[in-house]
Amino acid sequence: MTVIAGAQMVTPDGVVEDGWLQTDGGRIAALGSGRPPANPGRDLGGRWLVPGFVDLHTHGGGGGSVVGADEAAVRTFVATHRRHGTTSIVASLVTGEYDALEHDVRVLAELTDAGLIAGVHLEGPWISPARKGAHDERALRAPEPAAVDRLLKAGHGTVRMVTLAPELKHGLDAVRAVVAAGAVAAVGHTDATYDVTRQAIDAGATVATHLFNAMAPVHHRDPGPIVALLEDERVTVELILDGVHLHAAIARLVRSAAGPQRIALVTDAMDATDIGDGEYVLGDMAVRVENGVARLVEGGSIAGSTLTMDHAFRFAVQQAGFSVPEAVRATSATPARLLGLDGRTGALAPGLDADLVVLDADLVVDAVMARGEWAP
Ligand SMILES: [Zn+2]
Fold first, then answer.
1. Most buried among 51, 67, 101, 316, by the most CB within 10 A?
2. Which residue out of 191, 232, 242, 268 is catalytically annotated?
């Protein structure tokens, strides 16, 4: 049992001043304001206490990549992001050949069952060659129903999200198949028109994969996927708030247009995260990181990020016009709901896992607790 007191605590009902929170057996047992029920093990002295971050879209960190599904690398990746406040993390695979993807999905499914990660995200191979970003063009495919079925089955329910381009042959059927399997269909890496994007949403797509990045841009006579995704209340949009993928003004525009409740911050982080500049690979593609910006060696496309969720949280509040509770929602409750984890995590509420982040006045991570244990 741990008792934390003296917190500026962000709960689903708002900010609680002089808040306390008690954990028991890895869960949040009770919370309130004022005098705690027992002597606090930690007095936060007015620091923020917010829910642990939930990251829907990440490829690596700390030198560990999820591609290849090596358990030691995945542990490094999880521990790296945890130090930055992420207590639930989805492993995002990139485009690859089906045999390799099936292998990775099977291993990552076991690591999901073991509680290490929160599920698997397939980003490719069912994406547009015209908007492939850092994905290997040779392995791009149309989402043939048998192949979609094969990878979903390999995950036995742990594939939580699939990013696809709905304009591809079988694209709308693939959206329906993903949703029928209980996963999130996300529109991304797409050259779809406004109308086809609307059809994909009607077919059940509910997420925009890193809105603006790797999709046809907005034109006032040809609004394309971005406007269709932005205007539809059924869609949650991912934003990569590293200051590189999107201008701060675009982040403010999205916050106004969609409302903060429809935004999920993601890192799209690759293995260089927390390591530094140098040469890396993403899937089979050579990547160079310079000044923290990851780009393909060939062609120079942005290749994921070296972002961590605490940095995205700060950017949201300090540059994109989010209040702290809005940033909390975009980094915890909203992604937890999309993943179907909201009965377990994503908020400071009794009965949920004790997944917590302590932030100082500058929103820098001071401490992280996952399932009731302080992270090292
Ligand atoms: Zn990605």
1. 51
2. 268
pLDDT tens digit sequence for 246-297: 999 999 999 999 999 999 999 999 999 998 899 988 777 888 999 889 899 9
CB-based contact 179:163 (threshold 8 Å): no
Annotate 79-107 with DSSP letters as a single string: HHHHHTTEEEEEEEE-S--HHHHHHHHHH
Residue 268 a catalytic site member: yes
Which helix (H) or strand (E) segment holds residue 319: the answer is helix 309-319
Determine the distance separating the centroid of ligand 1 and the alpha carbon of 69, expressed in angstroms: 16
Ion ligand 1 — residues with CB under 5 Å? 123, 268
Report how far ligand 1's centroid is from the alpha carbon of 18 (Å): 39
92 Cα to the center of ligand 1, angstroms: 7
3-state secondary structure of 371: coil
Per residue in 7-39, pLDDT tens? 999 999 999 999 999 999 999 999 999 999 999
Q: What is the DSSP secondary-structure string of 131-196? A: G-TTS-GGG-----HHHHHHHHHHTTT-EEEEEE-TTSTTHHHHHHHHHHTTPEEEE-SB---HHH
Kindly write down the DSSP assignment for every residue of 221-243, as one continuous string. Answer: TB-HHHHHHHH-TT-EEEE--SS
Does residue 134 or residue 130 have the better pLDDT? Answer: 130
| β pairing state of 48-51 and 2-11 | parallel
